[in-house]
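Per your request, structure below.
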């Protein structure tokens, strides 16, 4: 089973001595989204969706985790540790289990979606519930990692960024070129940083357009948000670790980092599921919500746009309760007119 380390090892900081811990991550589909394009007033073939929810644990986090955990094993680590809104903990727990390492995760109490928490539990991670937000959990995780001598596998670990940059390699490989615009959710801001690194290593400079939730938009506001609030739990972060690097990617690419409301996110989340057959978690719908927001303001980007959908919809199944299903109940053997 080959993953992205084997595929891209010439562009990653690995050697023949690096033990590769993989679950077959990477190689996710890039799907043409003509109905999204039409809704944004763009021509067919103008929008593609990078479906990162089809990585092994259901999110883009696996790209960085395979490398971070592999290098942790190479360095002789006995455990890994992270703070998380859910996806990082699920990924860290899975890759730690694969490597036979101890895994400790710090989670903000009551703020992790059920799908992500269930993965973390089943992969055997030791869970520390923090009565606070993600940023407070991260501060505690950093201290604990230093005390225990564990490898911290949050996106502050540069190896996470190195692994995640391979998403840009795949986009270019599939399209045969870089997109003109790259739309992506922004939470801790590691992924926009990583994609920009990947593109520039290949000699490309697409406009990087990041999207935060309005209730958790520190980069847009220009200041930390003490109590971030949004239904998009994966980007509910008030003090991004990669803030400076994200600004650098934005500025160097002549891009932007803007915000969308929860209502706009949910509208895009529903549109993707019902019009494109793509079920993503709410935070993943933020870039599509951003595209629709620009279109409404008559500012839709011209050229080719790739939207990264970072996690699968089953990561946060509780959100679907907001949308009432059409159910018809009949007795067994009864006649129904459809």
């Amino acid at each position: 089973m080959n993953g992205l380390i084997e595929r891209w090892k010439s562009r990653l900081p690995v050697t023949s001595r690096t033990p590769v811990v993989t679950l077959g991550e990477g190689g996710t589909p890039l799907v043409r989204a003509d109905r999204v394009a039409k809704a944004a007033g763009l021509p067919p073939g103008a929008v593609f969706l990078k479906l990162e929810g089809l990585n092994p644990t259901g999110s883009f986090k696996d790209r960085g985790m395979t490398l971070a955990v592999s290098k942790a094993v190479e360095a002789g680590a006995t455990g890994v540790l992270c703070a998380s809104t859910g996806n990082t903990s699920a990924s860290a727990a899975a890759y730690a289990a694969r490597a036979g390492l101890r895994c400790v995760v710090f989670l903000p109490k009551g703020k992790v979606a059920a799908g992500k928490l269930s993965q973390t539990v089943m992969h055997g991670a030791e869970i520390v519930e923090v009565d606070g937000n993600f940023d407070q959990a991260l501060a505690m995780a950093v201290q604990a990692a230093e005390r225990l001598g564990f490898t911290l596998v949050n996106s502050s670990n540069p190896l996470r960024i190195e692994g995640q940059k391979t998403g840009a390699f795949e986009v270019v490989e599939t399209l045969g070129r870089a997109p003109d615009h790259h739309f992506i959710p922004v939470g801790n801001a590691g992924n926009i940083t990583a994609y920009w690194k990947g593109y520039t290593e290949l000699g490309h400079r697409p406009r990087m357009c990041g999207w935060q939730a309005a209730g958790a938009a520190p980069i847009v506001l220009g200041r930390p948000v003490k109590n971030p609030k949004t239904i998009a739990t994966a980007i509910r972060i008030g003090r991004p670790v990669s803030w400076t690097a994200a600004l650098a990617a934005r500025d160097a690419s002549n891009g932007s980092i803007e915000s969308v409301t929860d209502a706009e996110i949910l509208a895009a989340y529903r549109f993707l599921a019902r019009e494109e057959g793509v079920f993503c978690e709410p935070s993943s719908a933020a870039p599509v919500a951003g595209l629709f927001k620009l279109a409404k303001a008559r500012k839709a980007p011209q050229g080719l746009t790739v939207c990264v959908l970072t996690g699968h919809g089953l990561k946060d199944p509780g959100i679907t309760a907001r949308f009432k299903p059409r159910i018809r109940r009949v007795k067994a053997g009864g006649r129904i007119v459809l």
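The chain has a mean pLDDT of 96.

Regards,
D.
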